[in-house]
From TrEMBL:
Keywords: Disulfide bond, FAD, Flavoprotein, Glycoprotein, Membrane, Oxidoreductase, Signal, Transmembrane, Transmembrane helix. Residues 377-486 form the ERV/ALR sulfhydryl oxidase domain. Its cofactor is FAD. GO terms for molecular function: flavin-dependent sulfhydryl oxidase activity; protein disulfide isomerase activity. It comes from the Eukaryota. It is an enzyme of class 1 (oxidoreductase). This is Sulfhydryl oxidase. Its EC number is 1.8.3.2. GO terms for cellular component: extracellular space; Golgi membrane. The keyword Membrane applies. Residues 6-128 form the Thioredoxin domain. The gene is QSOX2. One of its GO terms (biological process) is protein folding. Belongs to the quiescin-sulfhydryl oxidase (QSOX) family.
Amino acid sequence: PSLTTRLYSEEDPVVILTSATVKQTLVNSSTAWLVQFYSSWCGHCIQYSPTWKALAGDVKDWEHAIRIGVLDCAQENNFDICKEFGIHFYPTFRYFKARGPTFDVGKTYRGADRELQTVRQLMVNFLQNHTRQDWPVSCPPLEPYSSADILPLIGQKSNQYTAVIVENEDSYVGREVILDLMMYQGLTVKRALSSERSLTEKLGINSFPSAYLLHPNGTHAILHVQKRLRFFFSSFLKLLLGVHRKLSTSGAPQEPLLEGPRGPGTAEALKDFEKSKVYMADLESGLHYLLRVELATHQTLEGEELKTFKDFVTVVAKLFPGRQSVVKLLETLLEWLVSLPLEKIPFDAILDLVNNKMRISGMFLSDQLQWVGCQGSRVGLRGYPCSLWTLFHVLTVQAASRPDALANTGLEENPKAVLQTMRKYIVNFFGCQECGKHFEEMAVASLPQVKSVDQAVLWLWRKHNQVNGRLAGTMSEDPHFPKTQWPSPDLCPICHEEQDGIHVWNEDTVLMFLKQHYGAANISPKHMY
Ligand code: FAD
Protein backbone atom coordinates (compact mmCIF):
# COMPACT_ATOMS: atom_id res chain seq x y z
CA PRO A 1 0.00 0.00 0.00
CA SER A 2 1.12 3.55 -0.64
CA LEU A 3 1.97 5.84 2.23
CA THR A 4 -1.32 7.67 1.80
CA THR A 5 -3.34 4.56 2.30
CA ARG A 6 -1.54 3.83 5.56
CA LEU A 7 -3.34 6.57 7.50
CA TYR A 8 -6.33 7.30 5.28
CA SER A 9 -8.00 5.15 2.65
CA GLU A 10 -10.75 5.53 0.09
CA GLU A 11 -13.09 3.91 2.63
CA ASP A 12 -12.72 6.90 4.94
CA PRO A 13 -15.05 9.88 4.53
CA VAL A 14 -12.09 12.22 3.81
CA VAL A 15 -10.97 13.37 0.38
CA ILE A 16 -7.39 12.25 -0.28
CA LEU A 17 -5.58 15.04 -2.10
CA THR A 18 -2.28 14.74 -3.96
CA SER A 19 0.05 17.04 -5.84
CA ALA A 20 -1.84 16.10 -8.99
CA THR A 21 -5.25 17.08 -7.67
CA VAL A 22 -4.91 19.59 -4.87
CA LYS A 23 -4.79 22.82 -6.87
CA GLN A 24 -7.58 22.04 -9.27
CA THR A 25 -9.66 20.85 -6.33
CA LEU A 26 -9.21 23.92 -4.18
CA VAL A 27 -9.25 26.68 -6.79
CA ASN A 28 -12.76 27.85 -7.57
CA SER A 29 -14.30 25.03 -5.55
CA SER A 30 -18.05 25.11 -5.00
CA THR A 31 -17.40 24.31 -1.33
CA ALA A 32 -15.05 25.46 1.37
CA TRP A 33 -12.31 23.06 2.51
CA LEU A 34 -10.54 22.11 5.67
CA VAL A 35 -7.36 20.23 4.77
CA GLN A 36 -4.96 18.46 7.06
CA PHE A 37 -1.42 18.42 5.71
CA TYR A 38 0.16 15.52 7.54
CA SER A 39 3.06 13.21 7.41
CA SER A 40 2.52 9.50 7.63
CA TRP A 41 5.63 9.06 9.78
CA CYS A 42 4.66 11.67 12.35
CA GLY A 43 3.48 9.95 15.52
CA HIS A 44 1.11 12.71 16.41
CA CYS A 45 -0.54 12.53 12.97
CA ILE A 46 -0.99 8.80 13.40
CA GLN A 47 -2.57 9.26 16.81
CA TYR A 48 -4.77 12.04 15.53
CA SER A 49 -6.07 10.20 12.44
CA PRO A 50 -9.00 8.48 14.24
CA THR A 51 -10.26 11.91 15.39
CA TRP A 52 -9.94 13.30 11.89
CA LYS A 53 -11.85 10.38 10.42
CA ALA A 54 -14.51 10.72 13.11
CA LEU A 55 -14.82 14.42 12.34
CA ALA A 56 -15.14 13.76 8.62
CA GLY A 57 -17.85 11.16 9.33
CA ASP A 58 -19.62 13.52 11.71
CA VAL A 59 -19.87 16.31 9.12
CA LYS A 60 -20.31 14.16 6.03
CA ASP A 61 -23.74 15.65 5.38
CA TRP A 62 -22.14 19.11 5.20
CA GLU A 63 -20.03 18.16 2.19
CA HIS A 64 -21.81 20.44 -0.24
CA ALA A 65 -20.82 23.37 1.99
CA ILE A 66 -17.44 22.35 3.38
CA ARG A 67 -15.30 19.30 2.79
CA ILE A 68 -12.53 17.59 4.71
CA GLY A 69 -9.32 16.68 2.93
CA VAL A 70 -5.92 15.18 3.72
CA LEU A 71 -2.58 15.50 1.97
CA ASP A 72 0.41 13.36 2.91
CA CYS A 73 3.57 15.45 2.81
CA ALA A 74 5.73 12.38 3.46
CA GLN A 75 4.90 11.03 0.05
CA GLU A 76 7.63 11.79 -2.43
CA ASN A 77 5.28 13.06 -5.12
CA ASN A 78 3.93 15.59 -2.66
CA PHE A 79 7.26 17.07 -1.47
CA ASP A 80 7.10 20.01 -3.86
CA ILE A 81 3.48 20.85 -3.33
CA CYS A 82 3.89 20.86 0.47
CA LYS A 83 6.81 23.27 -0.01
CA GLU A 84 4.63 25.47 -2.17
CA PHE A 85 1.98 25.52 0.55
CA GLY A 86 4.69 26.36 3.08
CA ILE A 87 4.00 23.43 5.36
CA HIS A 88 6.67 23.33 8.08
CA PHE A 89 5.04 21.24 10.78
CA TYR A 90 2.72 18.28 10.85
CA PRO A 91 -0.12 18.25 11.11
CA THR A 92 -1.02 21.65 9.70
CA PHE A 93 -4.68 22.52 9.33
CA ARG A 94 -5.62 24.92 6.56
CA TYR A 95 -8.95 26.38 5.62
CA PHE A 96 -9.74 27.29 2.03
CA LYS A 97 -12.65 29.47 1.13
CA ALA A 98 -15.11 28.41 -1.52
CA ARG A 99 -14.87 29.96 -4.96
CA GLY A 100 -11.33 31.26 -4.50
CA PRO A 101 -10.44 32.52 -7.99
CA THR A 102 -6.70 31.79 -7.80
CA PHE A 103 -4.30 29.53 -5.97
CA ASP A 104 -3.85 30.48 -2.35
CA VAL A 105 -2.14 28.69 0.50
CA GLY A 106 -5.14 28.84 2.82
CA LYS A 107 -5.53 30.04 6.36
CA THR A 108 -3.82 28.10 9.14
CA TYR A 109 -5.67 27.02 12.27
CA ARG A 110 -3.17 27.49 15.08
CA GLY A 111 -5.29 26.57 18.08
CA ALA A 112 -3.98 23.90 20.42
CA ASP A 113 -7.43 22.41 20.88
CA ARG A 114 -7.98 19.88 18.12
CA GLU A 115 -10.90 18.09 19.71
CA LEU A 116 -13.60 17.11 17.29
CA GLN A 117 -16.22 19.48 18.67
CA THR A 118 -13.88 22.48 18.62
CA VAL A 119 -12.82 21.87 15.04
CA ARG A 120 -16.42 21.33 13.99
CA GLN A 121 -17.41 24.68 15.49
CA LEU A 122 -14.48 26.32 13.75
CA MET A 123 -15.77 24.93 10.48
CA VAL A 124 -19.07 26.68 11.14
CA ASN A 125 -17.29 29.95 11.93
CA PHE A 126 -15.20 29.60 8.82
CA LEU A 127 -18.27 29.08 6.67
CA GLN A 128 -19.75 32.23 8.17
CA ASN A 129 -16.63 34.17 7.23
CA HIS A 130 -17.63 33.90 3.59
CA THR A 131 -19.19 36.94 2.02
CA ARG A 132 -22.21 37.11 -0.19
CA GLN A 133 -19.85 36.89 -3.18
CA ASP A 134 -17.99 33.74 -2.25
CA TRP A 135 -20.70 31.96 -0.22
CA PRO A 136 -20.65 28.21 -1.08
CA VAL A 137 -23.45 27.75 -3.59
CA SER A 138 -25.35 25.00 -1.79
CA CYS A 139 -24.76 26.18 1.76
CA PRO A 140 -27.99 27.32 3.44
CA PRO A 141 -28.05 30.61 5.38
CA LEU A 142 -26.54 30.27 8.86
CA GLU A 143 -27.40 33.68 10.29
CA PRO A 144 -30.25 33.87 12.77
CA TYR A 145 -33.65 35.01 11.59
CA SER A 146 -35.59 37.70 13.43
CA SER A 147 -39.07 37.50 14.92
CA ALA A 148 -40.28 39.58 12.00
CA ASP A 149 -39.02 36.91 9.56
CA ILE A 150 -40.50 33.96 11.39
CA LEU A 151 -43.80 35.17 12.88
CA PRO A 152 -45.57 35.62 9.52
CA LEU A 153 -44.83 31.97 8.62
CA ILE A 154 -46.79 30.63 11.58
CA GLY A 155 -50.11 29.13 10.54
CA GLN A 156 -49.27 29.42 6.83
CA LYS A 157 -49.61 26.46 4.50
CA SER A 158 -46.49 25.54 2.59
CA ASN A 159 -45.12 22.79 0.40
CA GLN A 160 -42.61 21.82 3.04
CA TYR A 161 -41.83 21.80 6.74
CA THR A 162 -39.97 24.61 8.45
CA ALA A 163 -38.10 23.88 11.66
CA VAL A 164 -36.95 26.80 13.78
CA ILE A 165 -34.19 26.21 16.31
CA VAL A 166 -34.37 28.86 19.00
CA GLU A 167 -31.12 29.11 20.93
CA ASN A 168 -28.70 31.28 22.84
CA GLU A 169 -26.21 33.33 20.91
CA ASP A 170 -23.21 31.15 21.75
CA SER A 171 -24.94 27.89 20.80
CA TYR A 172 -23.86 26.00 17.68
CA VAL A 173 -26.79 23.56 17.70
CA GLY A 174 -28.92 25.54 15.25
CA ARG A 175 -26.16 25.94 12.69
CA GLU A 176 -25.13 22.31 13.02
CA VAL A 177 -28.69 21.10 12.53
CA ILE A 178 -29.11 23.41 9.51
CA LEU A 179 -26.00 21.87 7.96
CA ASP A 180 -26.99 18.33 8.95
CA LEU A 181 -30.24 18.75 7.02
CA MET A 182 -28.86 20.58 3.99
CA MET A 183 -28.93 17.44 1.85
CA TYR A 184 -32.57 16.79 2.67
CA GLN A 185 -35.62 18.02 0.85
CA GLY A 186 -39.10 18.65 2.17
CA LEU A 187 -37.79 20.76 5.05
CA THR A 188 -36.01 24.05 5.75
CA VAL A 189 -34.23 24.63 9.04
CA LYS A 190 -33.79 28.16 10.35
CA ARG A 191 -32.38 29.47 13.57
CA ALA A 192 -33.45 32.35 15.78
CA LEU A 193 -31.96 33.73 18.99
CA SER A 194 -33.48 33.42 22.43
CA SER A 195 -33.28 37.20 22.68
CA GLU A 196 -36.16 37.48 20.15
CA ARG A 197 -38.77 37.98 22.87
CA SER A 198 -41.85 38.35 20.70
CA LEU A 199 -41.00 35.07 18.99
CA THR A 200 -40.28 33.06 22.14
CA GLU A 201 -43.45 34.39 23.76
CA LYS A 202 -45.60 33.56 20.76
CA LEU A 203 -44.13 30.05 20.55
CA GLY A 204 -44.16 29.49 24.31
CA ILE A 205 -40.48 28.61 24.44
CA ASN A 206 -38.53 29.29 27.60
CA SER A 207 -35.62 26.90 27.57
CA PHE A 208 -32.90 26.81 24.95
CA PRO A 209 -32.10 25.29 22.56
CA SER A 210 -35.61 24.28 21.52
CA ALA A 211 -37.03 23.44 18.13
CA TYR A 212 -40.39 24.50 16.78
CA LEU A 213 -41.95 22.76 13.80
CA LEU A 214 -44.24 24.35 11.21
CA HIS A 215 -46.05 21.63 9.26
CA PRO A 216 -46.95 21.97 5.56
CA ASN A 217 -50.67 21.98 6.48
CA GLY A 218 -50.27 25.10 8.63
CA THR A 219 -50.30 23.43 12.03
CA HIS A 220 -47.35 24.06 14.32
CA ALA A 221 -45.97 22.82 17.60
CA ILE A 222 -42.89 22.58 19.69
CA LEU A 223 -40.81 19.59 18.75
CA HIS A 224 -40.50 17.12 21.58
CA VAL A 225 -37.20 15.31 21.65
CA GLN A 226 -35.91 13.31 24.58
CA LYS A 227 -32.68 15.28 24.79
CA ARG A 228 -32.26 18.73 23.32
CA LEU A 229 -29.05 17.94 21.48
CA ARG A 230 -27.94 18.31 17.88
CA PHE A 231 -28.17 14.59 17.14
CA PHE A 232 -31.71 14.30 18.53
CA PHE A 233 -33.01 17.30 16.59
CA SER A 234 -31.32 16.20 13.36
CA SER A 235 -32.48 12.60 13.47
CA PHE A 236 -36.02 13.62 14.36
CA LEU A 237 -36.20 15.98 11.37
CA LYS A 238 -34.63 13.49 8.94
CA LEU A 239 -37.32 10.98 9.83
CA LEU A 240 -40.33 13.25 9.25
CA LEU A 241 -42.75 11.77 6.75
CA GLY A 242 -42.09 13.44 3.41
CA VAL A 243 -38.57 14.55 4.26
CA HIS A 244 -35.89 12.68 2.41
CA ARG A 245 -32.39 12.90 1.21
CA LYS A 246 -31.82 14.52 -2.14
CA LEU A 247 -30.61 11.84 -4.49
CA SER A 248 -28.65 14.14 -6.77
CA THR A 249 -24.96 14.09 -6.01
CA SER A 250 -24.51 17.70 -7.02
CA GLY A 251 -26.33 18.95 -3.95
CA ALA A 252 -28.09 21.50 -6.08
CA PRO A 253 -31.43 22.56 -4.70
CA GLN A 254 -34.25 20.38 -5.96
CA GLU A 255 -37.90 20.89 -6.59
CA PRO A 256 -39.92 20.89 -3.40
CA LEU A 257 -42.20 17.96 -2.74
CA LEU A 258 -45.57 18.80 -4.19
CA GLU A 259 -47.21 15.43 -4.61
CA GLY A 260 -47.90 14.84 -0.96
CA PRO A 261 -45.98 12.97 1.64
CA ARG A 262 -45.10 9.87 -0.40
CA GLY A 263 -43.81 11.73 -3.40
CA PRO A 264 -43.66 10.62 -7.00
CA GLY A 265 -43.55 7.09 -8.36
CA THR A 266 -45.54 5.51 -5.59
CA ALA A 267 -47.71 2.76 -6.93
CA GLU A 268 -49.84 1.73 -4.01
CA ALA A 269 -50.46 2.73 -0.44
CA LEU A 270 -48.14 1.33 2.18
CA LYS A 271 -49.48 -1.34 4.50
CA ASP A 272 -49.70 -0.04 8.00
CA PHE A 273 -46.91 -1.17 10.24
CA GLU A 274 -44.97 0.00 13.26
CA LYS A 275 -41.25 0.67 13.20
CA SER A 276 -41.00 -0.69 16.70
CA LYS A 277 -42.11 -4.18 15.62
CA VAL A 278 -40.61 -7.07 13.70
CA TYR A 279 -42.99 -8.83 11.31
CA MET A 280 -43.22 -12.56 10.87
CA ALA A 281 -44.44 -11.95 7.32
CA ASP A 282 -41.02 -10.46 6.47
CA LEU A 283 -39.15 -13.34 8.07
CA GLU A 284 -41.21 -16.00 6.31
CA SER A 285 -41.11 -14.18 2.98
CA GLY A 286 -37.33 -13.94 3.36
CA LEU A 287 -37.05 -17.68 4.03
CA HIS A 288 -39.29 -18.42 1.08
CA TYR A 289 -37.19 -16.26 -1.23
CA LEU A 290 -33.95 -17.66 0.11
CA LEU A 291 -34.98 -21.30 -0.31
CA ARG A 292 -37.05 -21.18 -3.46
CA VAL A 293 -35.43 -18.37 -5.43
CA GLU A 294 -31.89 -17.56 -4.31
CA LEU A 295 -30.71 -21.10 -3.54
CA ALA A 296 -32.76 -22.61 -6.33
CA THR A 297 -30.39 -21.08 -8.87
CA HIS A 298 -27.82 -23.63 -7.68
CA GLN A 299 -28.48 -26.96 -9.34
CA THR A 300 -26.51 -29.03 -6.90
CA LEU A 301 -24.96 -28.35 -3.55
CA GLU A 302 -21.63 -29.89 -2.66
CA GLY A 303 -18.47 -29.20 -0.70
CA GLU A 304 -18.36 -25.81 0.98
CA GLU A 305 -21.79 -24.86 -0.38
CA LEU A 306 -23.41 -27.96 1.06
CA LYS A 307 -21.73 -27.42 4.43
CA THR A 308 -22.93 -23.81 4.43
CA PHE A 309 -26.47 -24.87 3.59
CA LYS A 310 -26.47 -27.50 6.36
CA ASP A 311 -25.22 -25.01 8.92
CA PHE A 312 -27.80 -22.50 7.78
CA VAL A 313 -30.63 -25.00 8.12
CA THR A 314 -29.28 -26.06 11.53
CA VAL A 315 -29.21 -22.52 12.81
CA VAL A 316 -32.69 -21.61 11.59
CA ALA A 317 -34.26 -24.93 12.56
CA LYS A 318 -32.96 -24.56 16.11
CA LEU A 319 -33.33 -20.82 16.60
CA PHE A 320 -36.10 -19.49 14.37
CA PRO A 321 -38.95 -18.42 16.67
CA GLY A 322 -41.57 -19.06 14.01
CA ARG A 323 -44.92 -20.72 13.50
CA GLN A 324 -45.08 -24.42 14.23
CA SER A 325 -45.69 -25.35 10.60
CA VAL A 326 -42.49 -23.55 9.55
CA VAL A 327 -40.28 -24.68 12.42
CA LYS A 328 -41.38 -28.29 11.85
CA LEU A 329 -40.54 -27.94 8.18
CA LEU A 330 -37.07 -26.64 9.00
CA GLU A 331 -36.47 -29.37 11.57
CA THR A 332 -37.53 -32.08 9.15
CA LEU A 333 -35.35 -30.60 6.43
CA LEU A 334 -32.44 -30.68 8.86
CA GLU A 335 -33.04 -34.30 9.86
CA TRP A 336 -33.17 -35.24 6.23
CA LEU A 337 -29.96 -33.37 5.39
CA VAL A 338 -28.11 -34.87 8.33
CA SER A 339 -29.28 -38.38 7.53
CA LEU A 340 -28.17 -38.20 3.91
CA PRO A 341 -24.72 -39.66 3.38
CA LEU A 342 -24.44 -37.87 0.04
CA GLU A 343 -21.63 -35.48 -0.78
CA LYS A 344 -23.69 -33.82 -3.43
CA ILE A 345 -27.37 -32.98 -3.28
CA PRO A 346 -29.43 -31.87 -6.27
CA PHE A 347 -31.32 -28.77 -5.20
CA ASP A 348 -34.47 -30.10 -6.85
CA ALA A 349 -34.64 -32.79 -4.18
CA ILE A 350 -34.65 -30.11 -1.51
CA LEU A 351 -37.33 -28.15 -3.33
CA ASP A 352 -39.43 -31.24 -3.77
CA LEU A 353 -39.23 -31.91 -0.07
CA VAL A 354 -40.07 -28.34 0.88
CA ASN A 355 -42.80 -27.82 -1.68
CA ASN A 356 -44.55 -31.16 -1.85
CA LYS A 357 -43.59 -33.87 0.58
CA MET A 358 -43.87 -31.87 3.75
CA ARG A 359 -47.06 -30.08 2.91
CA ILE A 360 -48.88 -33.39 3.26
CA SER A 361 -48.02 -33.51 6.95
CA GLY A 362 -49.03 -29.92 7.57
CA MET A 363 -45.51 -28.51 7.40
CA PHE A 364 -45.27 -25.63 5.04
CA LEU A 365 -43.74 -22.30 4.29
CA SER A 366 -45.94 -19.87 2.42
CA ASP A 367 -44.82 -19.22 -1.13
CA GLN A 368 -46.09 -15.65 -1.20
CA LEU A 369 -43.92 -12.60 -0.84
CA GLN A 370 -45.51 -10.31 1.68
CA TRP A 371 -43.27 -7.50 2.89
CA VAL A 372 -44.52 -5.46 5.85
CA GLY A 373 -41.72 -3.89 7.89
CA CYS A 374 -39.57 -4.49 4.79
CA GLN A 375 -42.00 -3.05 2.22
CA GLY A 376 -40.50 -0.55 -0.18
CA SER A 377 -42.10 2.52 -1.68
CA ARG A 378 -41.62 0.91 -5.06
CA VAL A 379 -40.68 -2.45 -6.49
CA GLY A 380 -36.98 -3.16 -6.32
CA LEU A 381 -36.40 -1.36 -3.05
CA ARG A 382 -36.02 -3.12 0.32
CA GLY A 383 -37.78 -6.50 0.51
CA TYR A 384 -35.41 -9.46 0.53
CA PRO A 385 -32.13 -7.90 1.74
CA CYS A 386 -34.07 -6.17 4.51
CA SER A 387 -35.58 -9.49 5.56
CA LEU A 388 -32.18 -11.15 5.57
CA TRP A 389 -30.74 -8.59 7.97
CA THR A 390 -33.87 -8.92 10.09
CA LEU A 391 -33.62 -12.72 10.13
CA PHE A 392 -30.00 -12.68 11.26
CA HIS A 393 -30.64 -10.09 13.96
CA VAL A 394 -33.46 -12.30 15.24
CA LEU A 395 -31.17 -15.35 15.17
CA THR A 396 -28.29 -13.67 17.03
CA VAL A 397 -30.74 -12.53 19.70
CA GLN A 398 -32.22 -16.03 19.98
CA ALA A 399 -28.74 -17.53 20.33
CA ALA A 400 -28.05 -15.08 23.16
CA SER A 401 -31.37 -15.66 24.92
CA ARG A 402 -31.55 -19.45 24.61
CA PRO A 403 -28.07 -20.76 25.34
CA ASP A 404 -29.10 -24.42 25.02
CA ALA A 405 -30.91 -24.14 21.73
CA LEU A 406 -27.95 -25.32 19.67
CA ALA A 407 -27.16 -28.31 21.92
CA ASN A 408 -25.97 -31.44 20.07
CA THR A 409 -25.53 -29.66 16.76
CA GLY A 410 -21.77 -29.21 16.98
CA LEU A 411 -22.33 -25.44 17.13
CA GLU A 412 -23.20 -25.20 20.83
CA GLU A 413 -19.77 -24.12 22.05
CA ASN A 414 -19.39 -21.42 19.46
CA PRO A 415 -20.65 -17.92 20.36
CA LYS A 416 -20.14 -16.91 16.73
CA ALA A 417 -22.14 -19.78 15.25
CA VAL A 418 -24.89 -17.56 13.85
CA LEU A 419 -22.49 -14.93 12.50
CA GLN A 420 -20.22 -17.47 10.86
CA THR A 421 -23.21 -19.12 9.24
CA MET A 422 -24.44 -15.76 8.02
CA ARG A 423 -20.99 -14.89 6.72
CA LYS A 424 -20.73 -18.13 4.77
CA TYR A 425 -24.27 -17.78 3.47
CA ILE A 426 -23.62 -14.24 2.27
CA VAL A 427 -20.37 -15.14 0.55
CA ASN A 428 -21.62 -18.33 -1.09
CA PHE A 429 -25.20 -17.54 -1.96
CA PHE A 430 -26.28 -13.92 -1.51
CA GLY A 431 -27.15 -12.64 -4.99
CA CYS A 432 -25.52 -9.26 -4.42
CA GLN A 433 -21.87 -10.09 -4.87
CA GLU A 434 -20.53 -6.65 -4.04
CA CYS A 435 -22.44 -6.80 -0.75
CA GLY A 436 -20.82 -10.14 -0.01
CA LYS A 437 -17.37 -8.72 -0.69
CA HIS A 438 -17.92 -5.79 1.65
CA PHE A 439 -19.39 -7.99 4.34
CA GLU A 440 -16.45 -10.37 4.08
CA GLU A 441 -14.00 -7.48 4.53
CA MET A 442 -15.80 -6.41 7.70
CA ALA A 443 -15.85 -9.98 8.98
CA VAL A 444 -12.13 -10.48 8.36
CA ALA A 445 -11.35 -7.25 10.20
CA SER A 446 -13.42 -7.67 13.33
CA LEU A 447 -15.28 -10.96 13.66
CA PRO A 448 -12.37 -12.64 15.50
CA GLN A 449 -12.84 -10.19 18.39
CA VAL A 450 -16.33 -11.52 19.13
CA LYS A 451 -16.09 -13.70 22.23
CA SER A 452 -19.66 -14.07 23.52
CA VAL A 453 -23.20 -14.41 22.25
CA ASP A 454 -23.95 -10.87 23.49
CA GLN A 455 -20.97 -9.50 21.58
CA ALA A 456 -22.29 -11.31 18.51
CA VAL A 457 -25.61 -9.44 18.79
CA LEU A 458 -23.75 -6.14 19.06
CA TRP A 459 -21.30 -6.97 16.29
CA LEU A 460 -24.08 -7.48 13.76
CA TRP A 461 -25.78 -4.27 14.88
CA ARG A 462 -22.51 -2.32 14.53
CA LYS A 463 -21.73 -3.73 11.08
CA HIS A 464 -25.27 -3.13 9.88
CA ASN A 465 -24.92 0.51 10.91
CA GLN A 466 -21.61 0.69 9.07
CA VAL A 467 -23.40 -0.53 5.93
CA ASN A 468 -26.23 1.98 6.53
CA GLY A 469 -23.66 4.77 6.78
CA ARG A 470 -22.02 3.73 3.53
CA LEU A 471 -25.32 3.44 1.65
CA ALA A 472 -27.07 6.58 2.93
CA GLY A 473 -27.94 8.77 -0.04
CA THR A 474 -27.05 6.14 -2.67
CA MET A 475 -29.38 4.41 -5.11
CA SER A 476 -29.94 1.57 -2.61
CA GLU A 477 -31.80 3.91 -0.34
CA ASP A 478 -35.57 3.97 -0.43
CA PRO A 479 -36.32 7.70 -0.08
CA HIS A 480 -39.26 6.84 2.14
CA PHE A 481 -37.10 4.72 4.43
CA PRO A 482 -33.89 6.69 4.78
CA LYS A 483 -30.87 4.84 6.05
CA THR A 484 -30.05 6.04 9.50
CA GLN A 485 -27.89 5.00 12.36
CA TRP A 486 -30.28 2.64 14.04
CA PRO A 487 -32.10 2.57 16.48
CA SER A 488 -32.97 6.23 15.99
CA PRO A 489 -33.70 8.27 19.12
CA ASP A 490 -37.46 7.92 18.68
CA LEU A 491 -37.12 4.14 18.99
CA CYS A 492 -34.56 4.13 21.78
CA PRO A 493 -33.79 7.50 23.38
CA ILE A 494 -31.63 5.99 26.11
CA CYS A 495 -29.40 4.29 23.55
CA HIS A 496 -27.99 7.71 22.66
CA GLU A 497 -25.70 9.98 24.59
CA GLU A 498 -23.48 12.93 23.90
CA GLN A 499 -19.94 13.28 25.20
CA ASP A 500 -18.00 16.47 24.49
CA GLY A 501 -20.44 17.33 21.74
CA ILE A 502 -20.05 13.99 20.01
CA HIS A 503 -22.76 11.44 19.65
CA VAL A 504 -22.00 8.15 21.40
CA TRP A 505 -23.97 4.95 21.83
CA ASN A 506 -24.69 3.50 25.22
CA GLU A 507 -23.92 -0.07 24.16
CA ASP A 508 -25.35 -1.74 27.26
CA THR A 509 -28.67 -0.11 26.53
CA VAL A 510 -28.40 -0.91 22.83
CA LEU A 511 -27.92 -4.58 23.70
CA MET A 512 -31.01 -4.56 25.88
CA PHE A 513 -32.95 -2.79 23.15
CA LEU A 514 -31.83 -5.29 20.48
CA LYS A 515 -32.85 -8.22 22.67
CA GLN A 516 -36.27 -6.69 23.17
CA HIS A 517 -36.77 -5.53 19.57
CA TYR A 518 -35.63 -8.75 17.92
CA GLY A 519 -36.99 -10.98 20.69
CA ALA A 520 -39.74 -13.51 19.98
CA ALA A 521 -42.32 -11.47 21.91
CA ASN A 522 -41.90 -8.50 19.58
CA ILE A 523 -42.59 -10.41 16.36
CA SER A 524 -46.00 -9.47 15.04
CA PRO A 525 -48.22 -11.85 13.01
CA LYS A 526 -49.95 -8.94 11.28
CA HIS A 527 -50.51 -9.19 7.49
CA MET A 528 -49.57 -12.89 7.42
CA TYR A 529 -51.04 -15.22 4.88
P1 FAD B 1 -31.95 -2.59 5.86
O1 FAD B 1 -30.58 -2.05 5.98
O2 FAD B 1 -32.13 -3.80 5.02
O3 FAD B 1 -32.44 -2.91 7.34
C1 FAD B 1 -33.63 -3.64 7.61
C2 FAD B 1 -34.21 -3.20 8.91
O4 FAD B 1 -33.31 -3.50 9.98
C3 FAD B 1 -34.41 -1.70 9.03
O5 FAD B 1 -35.65 -1.34 8.49
C4 FAD B 1 -34.36 -1.47 10.53
O6 FAD B 1 -35.60 -1.75 11.11
C5 FAD B 1 -33.37 -2.51 10.99
N1 FAD B 1 -32.01 -2.00 11.16
C6 FAD B 1 -31.38 -1.01 10.48
N2 FAD B 1 -30.14 -0.84 10.94
C7 FAD B 1 -29.96 -1.76 11.91
C8 FAD B 1 -28.88 -2.07 12.77
N3 FAD B 1 -27.73 -1.40 12.73
N4 FAD B 1 -29.05 -3.08 13.66
C9 FAD B 1 -30.21 -3.74 13.76
N5 FAD B 1 -31.26 -3.48 12.97
C10 FAD B 1 -31.15 -2.50 12.06
N6 FAD B 1 -26.60 -2.94 -0.44
C11 FAD B 1 -25.73 -2.24 -1.18
O7 FAD B 1 -26.16 -1.44 -2.01
N7 FAD B 1 -24.38 -2.35 -1.01
C12 FAD B 1 -23.86 -3.23 -0.10
O8 FAD B 1 -22.64 -3.35 0.03
C13 FAD B 1 -24.75 -4.01 0.68
N8 FAD B 1 -24.29 -4.93 1.57
C14 FAD B 1 -25.17 -5.74 2.23
C15 FAD B 1 -24.70 -6.74 3.08
C16 FAD B 1 -25.57 -7.61 3.71
C17 FAD B 1 -25.03 -8.69 4.61
C18 FAD B 1 -26.97 -7.50 3.49
C19 FAD B 1 -27.93 -8.46 4.15
C20 FAD B 1 -27.46 -6.50 2.66
C21 FAD B 1 -26.57 -5.62 2.02
N9 FAD B 1 -27.03 -4.61 1.16
C22 FAD B 1 -26.14 -3.85 0.46
C23 FAD B 1 -28.46 -4.29 1.12
C24 FAD B 1 -28.75 -3.14 2.09
O9 FAD B 1 -27.99 -3.26 3.29
C25 FAD B 1 -30.20 -3.08 2.52
O10 FAD B 1 -30.58 -4.34 3.03
C26 FAD B 1 -31.15 -2.71 1.42
O11 FAD B 1 -30.72 -1.53 0.79
C27 FAD B 1 -32.58 -2.49 1.98
O12 FAD B 1 -32.50 -1.46 2.94
P2 FAD B 1 -33.61 -1.17 4.01
O13 FAD B 1 -33.94 0.26 4.00
O14 FAD B 1 -34.75 -2.10 3.87
O15 FAD B 1 -32.92 -1.45 5.44
